[in-house]
Design brief:
The chain is about 60% helix and about 10% strand. By secondary structure, the chain is of the alpha+beta class. The chain has a five-stranded antiparallel β-sheet, with no helix packed on it. Helix 6 packs antiparallel against helix 11 and helix 9 runs antiparallel to helix 10. The chain is elongated.
């Protein structure tokens, strides 16, 4: 420990002060500088050409990708979820925690000043060796007072950059928390859209089954009338009753799924189950999947997807912590200054010139015989950095996998919707023809039942395929990291039929 009042220490302190000033001004820091890692990605996605060729109506740049479904109710629910969802609230709390960690890391680079003041009243015992000794001093008073007020400033001089590396790590952790918040918002928006699409799908399927039940009940009524007239055998009545029971049994299953989906949406919006059910009571069409005309390259994912941003910021933080660990090889310098007053006479003399006191101390701490532990800490930090690097590269590869899967699903589901829509129309005409032929006695009643069953399966499959196409679009937007600013979105102005009208 050296004091600034020492004339012997001053010649040593001047060169050291120059070294400190030069190092701080230069801003150098021990350890490796971060370099963005290379990630092996293809130049384009496999299904990119097919996606970009499908462009019916170009619309303006959309950052809020859910608006591309052209469903105001869906947009409203997503907005409510982003405002009220409790997972997003937790993510915001994590961002606030990371911001506090950054503030603390920044504060470590600045001097700290503390103020202290105390007043002490002492009554000395005469039964102690000190009391017996002092009692022999003429005029000794057993009672004494002591007053003191000081300002103490301390500053760790970050010559070799260990604290600056810690601040770099804190900055990266804060940015990772913010990107994590964006990832949570994207996930909640996608989940809200998925649940909403599921609700509309189940409502559509429920309408199809109810219309089909009505058709089967009308058919049962006609067959029963013919049976009473002796025109058809009892077997046909029993077959129709079985078909009615089959359709009726499917309705409670769909209703159960619909209730669960509505409850899940309420909870996702941060509300109790049943809160928004009235807003969904009226059945409407399944949202059509929006199309994109330009999706960019796989390298764009590194700038779009928040989970990749999280992975890279954590890699940056690990790199900075490696530098902080290496800085432990070097000495730490601390500067402490005390300014204050002290008196043992009276409080009135506390701030007099005679009571002034001051001290300046330059401290040195160096782990000279602890290099084995420092080596272990550096190895640990380097291992964590390698782990973060592998996690980042793996996240990038999985991101491209997500995009490829979602593109493939969207293209194939759209083809499926088109095929099932055409098939549904054809089967509906076939069913009408079959029933007309049955009434004329040209075909058997089994043909009518078969046509009804096939039409029901096709209509239900078409509704499910349309919902899956919308789910695939949501997955694609999520895989891309949300909306992006170009003219890459287009509304799907297709001629798909929403629901087939049962006779």
């Amino acid at each position: 420990m050296f004091t600034f009042s020492s004339r012997i220490a001053m010649p040593l302190l001047r060169p050291l002060a120059l070294l400190i000033s030069a190092s701080v001004l230069a801003g150098c820091a021990i350890g490796p500088e971060y370099t963005k890692p290379e990630v092996s990605l293809p130049d384009h996605f496999m299904g990119q050409a097919q996606i970009e060729q499908r462009n019916d109506k170009a619309i303006k740049d959309i950052v809020s990708w859910w608006d591309g479904f052209d469903d105001p109710i869906l947009s409203r629910f997503v907005a409510l979820a982003l405002e009220q969802n409790l997972d997003i609230a937790q993510a915001s709390a994590r961002i606030a925690q990371a911001r506090s960690g950054l503030t603390m890391a920044q504060a470590a680079l600045l001097p700290s000043v503390n103020g202290t003041a105390q007043g002490t009243r002492v009554h000395q015992s005469l039964e102690t060796p000190l009391g017996q000794l002092l009692n022999n001093v003429p005029g000794y008073d057993r009672n004494a007072s002591m007053y003191e007020a000081n300002l103490v400033a301390g500053w760790e001089l970050d010559i070799f950059g260990g604290l600056r590396r810690e601040r770099e790590a804190a900055i990266s952790e804060y940015l990772a928390a913010k990107a994590g918040g964006d990832a949570t918002r994207l996930a909640i928006a996608a989940q809200t859209a998925d649940i909403y699409i599921t609700i509309r799908s189940l409502q559509t399927r429920l309408d199809i089954n109810r219309k089909q039940l009505q058709t089967q009940q009308e058919l049962l009524s006609k067959v029963s009338m013919l049976y009473q007239r002796g025109l058809v055998p009892k077997l046909q009545v029993q077959q129709t009753e079985g078909a009615v029971a089959h359709v009726k049994a499917s309705i409670p299953v769909i209703e159960t799924g619909l209730d669960s989906a509505m409850n899940a949406l309420d909870v996702l919006l941060g509300a109790a189950p049943g809160t928004y059910r009235s807003d969904l009571g009226q059945s409407t069409t399944i949202p059509f999947a929006p199309q994109v005309s330009s999706i960019g390259s796989p390298a764009d994912l590194l700038l779009r997807r928040p989970d990749l941003m999280v992975a890279e910021q954590r890699l940056k933080a690990a790199n900075a912590r490696t530098g902080a660990a290496i800085s432990e090889y070097y000495p730490k310098f601390g500067l402490n200054v005390l300014l204050g007053s002290a008196t043992a006479i009276s409080a009135g003399n506390l701030f007099s010139s005679n009571a002034n006191q001051a001290a300046g101390i330059l401290g040195l701490r160096w782990r000279l015989f602890d290099f084995g532990r420092i080596n272990a800490q550096i190895d640990l930090a380097k291992g964590q950095e390698l782990e973060a690097l592998s996690a980042y590269r793996q996240a990038a590869l999985r991101a491209t996998e997500d995009v490829e899967n979602s593109i493939s699903a969207l293209l194939k589901r759209d083809e499926q919707v088109e095929a099932l829509t055409q098939g549904e129309l054809a089967l509906q005409q076939a069913r009408e023809s079959s029933f007309a032929a049955y009434q004329k006695g040209v075909s058997s009643f089994i043909d009518v039942l078969h046509a009804d069953e096939t039409l029901l399966r096709t209509a239900d499959a078409r509704a499910q395929a349309q919902a899956e196409a919308a789910h695939a679009a949501v997955a694609m937007f999520k895989a891309f990291g949300g909306g992006w600013k170009n003219d890459g979105l287009s509304s799907q102005a297709s001629s798909h039929v929403n629901t087939a009208k049962a006779p």
